[in-house]
Amino acid sequence: MDNLFLKYMGSREGKQERPQRISLNPGPVITISREYGCHGKRIAEKLTQVLSMKSEASGENKQWRWISKEILEESAKELKLSTSLVKDLSEYRQSSFFKDLALFFSEDFYPGDATIKNTIARYIHNEAEQGYVIIVGRAGEAITKNIKRSFHLKLEAPLNWRAEVVAREEKMSISEAKKACLAQDKRRALFRDYFERGKKDIDFFDAILNCQALSDDEILELLIIICEIRGFI
User: Fold this and answer.
1) ∠227-195-27 over CA atoms, to 5°?
2) pLDDT band at 89 (very low <50, low <70, confident <90, very high)
3) CA-to-CA separations, 130 to 10, 157, 204, in angstroms, rounded
4) Do 192 and 142 touch, CB atoms closer than 8 A?
């Protein structure tokens, strides 16, 4: 079975992808995208624990896991770069003039934008094919949309509410927190747009939930019900 997604990403990068190990029944996988200030990682951690316990109780004994920072760490290993540099390059973060100059004159050592993003995508897709994984961020919804046994969630909340959360947790003023939210949202949108190509959220997400209106426990309960109905556990 050909993996159309990886073929497509290979064509965008201008090279043929090496053969990938394909699962006959990939998944299940859950992806969580979030606006800055919404706690996707916290929910992913709780959901992993609950799904693993339910799987053990049913006799299936499948251990769920969640990944976030591992995405950049493993991609950085393949690219032979530091995790922080891969993060900066993939998120279009501003850097110093001398750092930009070094990157410009070092194409043999620093991969281009497409190479970095496609390396990240390969890691995410391979993890999703193995299944029983929750992927937080990094355009997981677009990268794994072709996997039938999947569910894609986006967490949103009003800017003022998110700014209050960030200000409290990061010890900054509300105005600084608003700027941080908008800047991080923009960086995440730029990364996602590489894979989503300007399409609407409805093309990728199965549900969009408001973190101001729903508690972590309520979101968790909804996700557990969905997992049970879809036969993930």
Assistant:
1) 25
2) confident
3) 21, 32, 21
4) yes
**Residue 183 to residue 189: CA distance in whole angstroms:** 10
**pLDDT of 45-63, one tens digit each?**
999 999 999 999 999 889 9
DSSP 189-210: HHHHHHHHTT--GGGT-SEEEE
Average pLDDT over residues 110-121: 83
Q: Indicate the pTM of the whole model.
A: 0.82
Mean pLDDT of the chain, nearest integer: 85
DSSP letters spanning 73-86 = HHHHHHHTS-HHHH
pLDDT at 76: 86
Is-contact 139 35, C-beta < 8 A? no
> Do the bridges between strand 29-34 and strand 150-156 make them parallel or antiparallel, or are there none, so unpaired?
parallel
CA angle 198, 21, 144 (to 5 degrees): 25
Which tokens go with 63?
């251990």
* Encoded tokens for 179: 């700027």
CB 2 within 8 A of CB 16: no
